[in-house]
Amino acid sequence: MSDVPPQSSPDPFAQCPSGCVCGVRELIAHENDRGPRDADEIDASEMRAMLIAVRTGYETVRSDPRVVERRHAANTAWSGAQRQLTRLRTTIEEKRIDNAAGELDRAERAAQSSRRRPAWLRAVRWPVVAGIGLFDVWYFGAVFRYLTSETGDAERGLNAVRALEVVVGIVPGVVLAIIIAASADALSRPLRAWKAAAPRPLRRDDDTGALTYALRVIGKWVQRAAWWMLPFGFVAFLLFVLARWAGLRAMYPTPPPDGYRPESVMLLIALLTIGAIVVKLLADDPVADELSVLRRRLRLLRWRYKWQSSRTERGIAAYDSAWSDLRTLRDDLVGLLNVKMQSAWEGFILRLRSLHRMAGNVTAAEGASDSREALLQPVFSGIPQPRMELGPLVEVCRLIDERDPADLRKEKRRLDNLFTDQIRGEDRRETALALRADDRA
């Protein structure tokens, strides 16, 4: 029995229990029998330890549920971002914004050379029509409710009947307001033709007799006089109604017991209705209406593109987050595989070599800048080792390399620049050429 305590015994197997079957004694004895060897020479036992590290690393990667989850999340986010970019690209390629901006430019140039209606008149036309419509709803609503009450429905005192009376009384007033607006549009066409025909000079043909030509001249002047008398007639009617009601107000400081005369009320309501129609006719400006329609159209297209652009930006941000998570998982699992191989060296190969001292010293390899390069680089410099099996990480690495979010952002910036060019109306030829180049690509 040895006199040296076990913890200080020169025998490396002094602390091993009796009957140990780990095989380290036999391996050391085999190395001693074989003699010294170079550090880059790998024997069968060392290669077996590294292959075990490869197998266990592959099984760990294959069984990790995060690989499937994050790969599917990245694919879904990528598809969503691509769909949004396709919508933006379709909007640009259809050139709706470009056409709308071009039409608006042409309409604005045409409007500069035409006579325009006052802006305040166009601004008040619809409030005037709406105001007369509200008056009609109130006035004729009361009239129709009065008429329905004469039938006896109101005397029953039923809430449902009263509610129906209110609705039925409102409908005619709304219809009258719509009729007033429609009447102004219906009158605008013949009045516009009359306005264009009145100042037109009369031409005499060679076969036209003197009497016929004289009658035509008289008719033309009557037509012109009637056209120019229209404003005077309306102003005279307005002053007449105002004067009549001013006289009634002077005669009756308070409403008379029997009410105002029916013809006075009729004239007042007729004045309000005709006045609304006149305001609508005077504010009629086809050029300005066309400009308003084109501006609203372009504004809608711009808002729609910006809304789609915002959704696309959110989709790219979502994919960027999923791509970053996938890349983090890739780096984590690659580090795990490296640790598996390093554990084989640390737990078996280096431990065994430190015991038999028949192999030379090893030098750690320089660190790799990329995680994929780290898998191809051996743990120690100049010493070969089996390649780690990536398994599902191959597809993960492909997705990370081929689907960089920076490419999506670059494409979006390109589409946004084309959108800006179309809005400004600048470089439209270059925009079309760029789109054709993309189609050919």
What would you say about this model in short?
By secondary structure, this protein is an all-alpha fold.
Topology (SSEs and partners):
Elements: H1 24-34, H2 44-62, H3 65-94, H4 96-112, H5 119-150, H6 159-197, H7 210-251, H8 262-282, H9 286-356, H10 371-376, H11 393-402, H12 405-424, H13 428-440
How would you describe the oligomerization state of the chains in this entry? single chain
Give me the Rg, rounded: 47 Å
Q: Tally the helices: what do you get?
A: 13
Mean pLDDT across the residues is 75
The number of distinct structural domains comes to 2
Beta-strand share of residues: under 5%
Q: Which of globular, elongated, flat, extended, rod-shaped describes the shape?
A: elongated
Largest sheet, in brief, is:
none
Give the low-pLDDT segments: 1-11, 152-156
Binned, the helix content reads over 70%
For the termini, the CA-CA separation is 86 Å
Structural class: mainly alpha
Total strands: 0
H/E element string?
HHHHHHHHHHHHH
Keyphrases for this structure?
13 helices; mainly alpha; 2 domains; 441 residues; disordered N terminus
Overall description:
- 75% of the residues lie in helices and 0% in strands.
- The protein is built from 13 helices and no strands.
- Helix 4 runs antiparallel to helix 9 (286-356) and helix 7 crosses helix 8.
- The chain is mainly alpha-helical and 441 residues long.
- The protein has two domains: 20-95 and 302-440, no CATH class; 117-284, no CATH class.
